[in-house]
Amino acid sequence: MMTLEPVLTPHGLLTLRQTAQAPALELNQGLRLEKAFLRGSGHGLLWLGADEVATVLPPVLSYWRALGMRYMTALCALPSVGDGRTKPPVPIPADGELDTMAAAVPPMTGAEYLTTSVLANLWQGMDAAFDAELVQAKLSLQEFLKSRHPAWNLVGRVHFNLAENRKDDEAPFAFLATYTTRLSAEAKAQHLPLGKALQEYSGARNRQRLLSLLMPVQRAAERSPWLKTLVNAGDIFHPLRWSPQQALQFLKDVPAIESAGWSCECRRVGA
Questions:
Q1: Given 135, 150, 165, which residue is the final one in a domain?
Q2: Which of 117, 150, 183 is the last residue of a domain?
Q3: What is the DSSP track for 58-86?
Q4: More confident residue, 60 or 185
């Protein structure tokens, strides 16, 4: 077992130190965190947010993990970079969001030094750490995200869901397009109906995010006539009742759809 606590220095650096007063961590977990933070605050926060997403942590480390996961979520929302090995900078959250985060810091050594400016600097540190580790890994961005935790490769993407419903004889299948916005505390991708994206990303400020989310829709529609029909009619944003023929057409097009950046899932509902 290891006892580590985060410490924020007067210069705004986040470090770890061993102390008998801190809650105990599993030895391997403590060693992983210690190794990451020895590389710098950005690397430590990145490890917390990207790799420790489903592990049990003490409250103070959980707070800093939330910052790391917020960064990772924003990263996954960037415009598609395909299989490239570089990415644009991840935008720093607005000052109002940083104010809220700073006000929510739990009791810890150096909490009095936490400001929006410090949080912004830590965010930039994570961004620099991610770029450095991506280059070191020699992987594409999507491959690198998956190597940190498989669930990150699902966030910020659109998914097609086909469900069988035996209670509906006339249309025994249901189709729904969803998108993933974040990970839960159990590292499960959180799905919302795609139509919600039109509300969540309304306004000029979020236009680029919406375009990025829907880019795979346009690519897939170019390869699938029935999907192009759904997109042009706006039906892609609503739940649909499907006949067996429509479901079969979808299943035949799954390889082309997935190659355009979509995830497809088939399941059964009802009795």
A1: 150
A2: 150
A3: -HHHHHHHHHHHHHHHHHHTSPP-TT-S-
A4: 60
